[in-house]
Amino acid sequence: MMEKNFGGWQKQPNKLNIQGTIEKAIEELTKEEVELIASRKN
Question: What percent of the chain has pLDDT over 90?
Answer without folding.
Answer: 52
